[in-house]
Write a structure and sequence with these properties.
Structural class: alpha+beta
Helix content: 25-40%
CATH architecture: 4-Layer Sandwich
Distance between the termini: 17 Å
Largest sheet: 6 strands, antiparallel
Order of helices and strands: EEEHHEEEEEHHEEHHHE
Strand content: 25-35%
Number of domains: 1
CATH superfamily: PPM-type phosphatase domain
Low-confidence stretches: 238-243
Number of helices: 7
Mean pLDDT: 93
CATH topology: Phosphatase 2c, domain 1
Amino acid sequence: MRSYAVTDVGRVRKNNEDSLLQSDMHRLYAVADGMGGHNAGEVASLIAVETLYLYEMTTGINGVDNFKEAFAEANRNILQTSMQERSTYGMGTTLTAVKIIGEYALYGHIGDSRLYFLNDRLCYQLSEDHSLVWEHFRAGILTKEECRFHPQKNIITKALGQFEDVDLDLGVIKLRRDGLFLLCSDGLTDMLSEAAIKSIVKAHYRSPERILEVLHREALSAGGVDNISFLMLVFDAEDGAKA
């Protein structure tokens, strides 16, 4: 398995509130998109990925229950810091994470960052956004494209650091050797449609480095109005089990 990562402040923001976790040794990966005044979003997203990594180091993530516990611990750490440091009060973050165990990928998710499975034919969103516009999408009121441009697209319904209880999504998927995982903040998906992402992956499917380069360049060219962060996990033939 090979992993690739990009994080960029974008063309508008002055600071990067996204944090990435890329641990090939532990096969643990995550993207977090922070929110809050001043630099509080940076603090929240960093706490989230650091807590996840420390949990892996001390306890180990070997099942979805561990993911639930790790997310809960990250939530507690964010809330505690928010209460202790006035400048970070009310901060929060999304967190989308993948842990590879044998022939399976475990994932945990809260917020509107995303996890996709892609190959040269498919573009399938594994995560569901926890946002107001996504609720409208599920109800058939908005299309995905309409969600991208809706004035209320930044209203998040779930995130770490908001409540004492964490209501995250958990899942398990069998690995396929004919595809890749893409974890990304909304700085990528607000700039590029799923059709555009799928087209880029299809055009450069045999060159992950080129996919990374083109996704990054096109997101910036589309405006780069938010921080842009994403991770790609690519499985060689001997790594993934064919589904």
